[in-house]
Specification:
It is an enzyme of class 2 (transferase). It holds the Pfam family BCDHK_Adom3. Belongs to the PDK/BCKDK protein kinase family. Its EC number is 2.7.11.-. By secondary structure, the protein is α+β, with helices and mostly antiparallel strands. It has two domains: 2-169, Alpha-ketoacid/pyruvate dehydrogenase kinase, N-terminal domain (Butyryl-CoA Dehydrogenase, subunit A, domain 3); 172-255 and 298-394, Histidine kinase-like ATPase, C-terminal domain (Heat Shock Protein 90). Helix content is 48%, strand content 12%. It contains 14 helices and eight strands. It has helices spanning 2-7, 24-50, 54-57, 60-76, 87-103, 107-117, 124-153, 157-161, 178-197, 217-237, 259-267, 281-288, 325-328, 362-372; strands at residues 168-169, 172-176, 203-207, 213-215, 245-251, 301-308, 376-382, 386-394. The strands form two sheets. A five-stranded mixed sheet has the order 3-5-6-8-7, covered by helices on one side. A hairpin with a 3-residue loop joins strand 7 and strand 8. Helix 4 runs antiparallel to helix 5 (87-103) and helix 4 packs antiparallel against helix 6 (107-117). The radius of gyration is 22 Å and the shape is globular.
C-alpha cells in the first residue's frame, strides 16, 4: 500500500504538473512521468503470470490477459530510448495510453472466468494471493495511464476555451462529496433490486453529509456500489426491506501529525514490509511538501458506516468473505451462468450463490480499491440481525 501511495504521489491535488489546462512543458512532464512507471509495472505483471502453472496460463481467458500485457508493453517500446520532447510525440504517446486502457478494460471478468475454469489445477489460496497482488497493481497502472489521458484531454485547445471545473485535476475530484456518490449508487442499485425483486430498499443517511475530500470518483463509486449491493440484497432476501439501510458519514478532524511521523509509525506496523526509518524518508517528505500540502498536515479521512438489517453473516461464512475463491472457485453452478457482469454480483450473505451472486470479486476487490490510498474496509456481523461495514477513506492529498 505504501509503495503505491509514494509512487503515485504526483497524482495528488497539488499535482507537480499543475492544474489543467496544462502548458506544453507540463504536459510533456506528465507524459514522461507516466512513461517512467508503466513499462516496469507491465513487465512485473507478465512475470507474475508466467510464474503460474502452465496449465493455468494456457487457459484461453488467462492467456488472453497475458497477451494483452505483452501487447501493451510492445506498443510502449518506441518510447523507451529517449524522453518525449515534442507535442507530436506526446500526442502519439497519449494514443498509446488510450489503447492500453481500452485493452485492459475487461481484465477482471476475464481473469474471473479463467480461474473459475482452472480451479481444479491450482490451490485456492494461491489464486487469492495472485489476484490480490495483481488487481492492486492493476489499479495503479490504470490510474497512472488514465491520469495522463485526463490531463491531456483537459489541456486541448477546445478545453482551454471552456471554463474547466476548478476542482477536477485529471481523474481526481479535489472536492468530492461522498454523500452524492452514495445517493447515485442507491438509485442505481435500487433500480436493479426493483427489477429483480419487485422492491426497492431505501437509505437513511446521517452524519457529516456535507463533508468533502480529494479522491478518484470512479474508484469510490465502485466500492460504494459493491457495499450497497450487498446491503440491499441481504435486506431484501431476509424480508426486512421495510427497514432502511442506515449510512453514517464521519469526517475525522485534522490530524496534527507530520508525514515523517506518520510514515515512521507505519513502518513499525506488522503488515508493512518496507522500512521507512532509513535515510531518504525526510527527503521524500520535504519533496512532497507542496504536492500533498504542508508537511505538518495529513490528508483528511472520512469513514462511512453502512448498517443493514439483513440477518448478518453466518459464523462459518465470515472468515471467507475476503477470499476470491469464496464464490468463484467453490460454486460449480456459477460456471454455467454468464453472471460476471451481472448488476448485483455481490457476495451472497448466506454463502449460497444465486443467479445474481456473480463470481465473488466484489468485496475483496472493493477492499483493494479502498486500501490503495490508505483506506480500509472492516465488517462487523451480528448473525441473526444484520451487518455493519466500515469504509475508511483517506484523501489523496490535503487541499490548501
Amino acid at each position: 500500500m505504501v509503495s503505491y501511495a509514494i509512487e503515485c504521489h504526483n497524482l495528488g491535488p497539488g499535482n507537480q504538473h499543475g492544474k489543467p489546462p496544462l502548458s506544453d512543458d507540463a504536459l510533456l512532464s506528465s507524459a514522461n512521468f507516466t512513461l517512467s512507471l508503466l513499462p516496469a509495472r507491465l513487465a512485473h505483471r507478465i512475470q507474475r503470470l508466467r510464474n503460474l502453472p502452465f496449465i493455468v496460463v494456457a487457459n484461453p481467458h488467462i492467456n488472453k490477459i497475458y497477451n494483452n500485457y505483452l501487447h501493451s508493453l510492445s506498443i510502449l517500446e518506441p518510447f523507451y530510448q529517449k524522453r518525449i520532447s515534442t507535442m507530436e510525440e506526446e500526442e502519439k504517446f497519449t494514443e498509446v495510453m488510450a489503447d492500453l486502457v481500452q485493452t485492459h478494460t475487461n481484465t477482471i471478468p476475464t481473469l474471473a472466468q479463467g480461474f473459475l475454469e482452472c480451479r481444479k489445477y491450482i490451490d485456492a489460496t494461491e489464486i487469492t494471493n495472485f489476484l490480490d497482488q495483481h488487481l492492486r497493481a492493476r489499479i495503479g497502472t490504470r490510474l497512472i495511464a488514465e491520469q495522463h489521458l485526463a490531463l491531456h484531454m483537459a489541456s486541448t485547445a477546445d478545453a482551454r476555451a471552456l471554463d474547466s471545473d476548478p476542482y477536477n485535476i485529471g481523474v481526481i475530484d479535489s472536492s468530492l462529496q461522498p454523500a452524492r456518490i452514495i445517493r447515485s449508487c442507491e438509485a442505481f442499485v435500487g433500480d436493479i433490486c426493483e427489477f429483480k425483486y419487485g422492491v426497492r430498499p431505501k437509505i437513511d443517511m446521517n452524519g457529516s453529509i456535507d463533508a468533502t475530500f480529494a479522491h478518484v470518483p470512479v474508484h469510490l463509486e465502485y466500492v460504494l456500489t459493491e457495499l450497497i449491493k450487498n446491503a440491499f440484497r441481504a435486506t431484501v432476501e431476509s424480508g426486512n426491506e421495510s427497514h432502511p439501510v442506515e449510512v453514517t458519514l464521519a469526517a475525522a478532524p485534522d490530524v496534527p501529525m507530520s508525514k515523517l511521523d506518520a510514515l515512521k509509525q507505519l513502518a513499525l506496523a506488522d503488515e508493512t514490509t518496507l522500512d521507512f526509518t532509513k535515510d531518504g524518508l525526510a527527503e521524500y517528505c520535504t519533496l512532497s511538501e507542496g504536492v500533498h500540502g504542508p508537511i505538518n498536515s495529513a490528508p483528511p479521512t472520512i469513514t462511512i458506516r453502512i448498517r443493514d438489517r439483513g440477518g448478518g453473516i453466518p459464523p462459518d461464512v465470515l472468515p471467507n468473505i475476503w477470499s476470491y475463491s469464496f464464490t468463484t472457485f467453490n460454486a460449480d453452478e456459477a460456471a454455467g451462468t454468464n453472471s460476471v457482469n451481472d448488476g448485483l454480483n455481490a457476495i451472497t450473505n448466506g454463502g449460497n450463490p444465486s443467479s445474481i451472486a456473480g463470481l465473488g470479486y466484489g468485496l475483496p476487490l472493493g477492499r483493494a480499491y479502498a486500501e490503495y490510498f490508505g483506506g480500509s474496509i472492516a465488517v462487523q456481523s451480528m448473525h441473526g440481525w444484520g451487518t455493519d461495514v466500515y469504509l475508511s477513506l483517506q484523501g489523496i492529498g490535503k487541499v490548501v
